[in-house]
Amino acid sequence: MSKDTIAVTGIETFGYHGVVEEERTHGQRFVVDLLVFTDVTDAAKRDDIASTIDYSQLALRAKKIAEGEPCDLIETVASRIADALLSVAGVDGIRVTVHKPNAPVGTAVADVSVSVERHR
After folding, report:
1. Which residues contact residue 52 at a Cβ distance below 8 angstroms, ignoring those fewer than 6 apart?
2. Span 74-102, pLDDT tens digits
3. Rounded alpha-carbon distances, angstroms, from residue 118 to 34, 51, 63, 68, 72
């Protein structure tokens, strides 16, 4: 596994994920964080954007998935994002965290999140 990482954090999304009917009807805010495992040696030597991963495209793909087809579980959302981004050239592995800051858990919490990690 590569020791280098690219992090893209705080991707703001709005989706209709959840098991509670209100979540599926009204939707809510979700936040996605990406940690990409890659090798940046060539990009650093060349100082050339063409030699690295386009993290703006990673962010846009993650956002599109998070705002797409509703899921009961954020585990499913995180897995869908991870599986899609793992296919990007140069991505050796990825950790995706999906935050659900307004999760209906019956008490005040700052955040609920699920992280998944996938590797080639």
Report:
1. 6, 38, 40, 43, 90
2. 999 999 999 999 999 999 999 999 999 99
3. 12, 22, 18, 21, 21
| pLDDT tens, position by position, 35-64 | 999 999 999 999 998 899 999 999 999 999
User: Taking the alpha carbons of 20, 22, 26, 28 in that order, is the dihedral positive or negative?
Assistant: negative
The verdict on whether 64 is a catalytic residue reads no
Answer whether 82's CB lies under 8 Å from 116's CB: yes
Interatomic CA distance for residues 63 and 34, integer angstroms: 11
- The reply to whether the predicted model has a pTM over 0.85 is yes
